[in-house]
Amino acid sequence: MSSIPDAEALYKELLKGVKALMRPQSKLVGITSGGAWLVERLQKDLGLPGAPGVISSAMHRDDFARRGLSASAQTSLPFDVNGCDVLLLDDVLYTGRTIRAVLNELFDFGRPACVRLAVLVDRGGRELPVAADFAAAKLTLPDTQLLALARADDGAFSLKVEENR
C-alpha cells in the first residue's frame, strides 16, 4: 500500500484547484459527510457569501436496502439549482456510485446548467464512467480497504484507512 498523504497538504491543493474551477456564478455543494466538511471550509477560505450546499446520496443509492438512511446530514441547497453552475466536492472518489446517486438527488431539485466534480483523493476503482475535474491526489488501495476523511475537533483534516467489511 502507498503511504497515506497528509490531508491538510491535500486540502491546500484542493483549494487551489477549486479556485481555478470557480466561475462568477459557481455554487459549492459538498457530499455528506467528508465533502460537506471540505465545502464548509472552502466556502470560508474562498470568501464566498452565504452557506454552501450539502447533498446526501442516501435516497438514491443502489444499495439503499442494505444501508438505509445514514445519520449524516440531509440535503440542503440554499440556492436555486435551475441554471446553476454546481461544483460538487467530495473527499474520496472510488466506484462512482455515490456521484451517480448525488446527481439523481441534485436533479430532484432542478436542472443545473453545469455540474463539475472536485475531490481530495481519487483512488481509482471506477465501476461507472465518472471522472473528477480536479483531484488533489491519486492513490491506489486494495479493494479490501476504505479511505475516509476524518475531522478533528479543531477542524484539522486527516485521512484514515479501514478494512472493508
Return Rg in Å: 15 Å
Number of helices: 4
SS elements, strand count:
7
Mean pLDDT: 92
Strand order of the largest sheet: 2-1-3-4-5
Class by alpha and beta content: alpha/beta
Main beta-sheet annotation? 5 strands, parallel
First and last CA, distance: 18 Å
Write a structural description:
- The protein has 165 residues and is α/β, with parallel strands linked by helices.
- It has helices spanning 7-21, 34-45, 64-67, 97-108, and strands spanning 26-31, 53-55, 85-93, 114-122, 134-138, 145-151, 157-163.
- The protein has a five-stranded parallel β-sheet. Strands 6-7 form a two-stranded antiparallel ribbon.
- The longest helix has 15 residues, at 7-21.
- It is globular and about 40 Å long.
- It starts with 6 loop residues before the first helix and ends with a strand.
- The mean pLDDT is 92.
Question: What's the quick description here?
Answer:
This protein is an alpha/beta fold. The chain has helices at 7-21, 34-45, 64-67, 97-108, and strands at residues 26-31, 53-55, 85-93, 114-122, 134-138, 145-151, 157-163.
Summary keywords:
26% helix, alpha/beta, five-stranded parallel β-sheet, globular, 28% strand, two-stranded antiparallel ribbon, 165 residues
SSE blueprint and pairings:
Layout: H1 7-21, E1 26-31, H2 34-45, E2 53-55, H3 64-67, E3 85-93, H4 97-108, E4 114-122, E5 134-138, E6 145-151, E7 157-163
Parallel strand pairs: 1-2, 1-3, 3-4, 4-5
Antiparallel strand pairs: 6-7
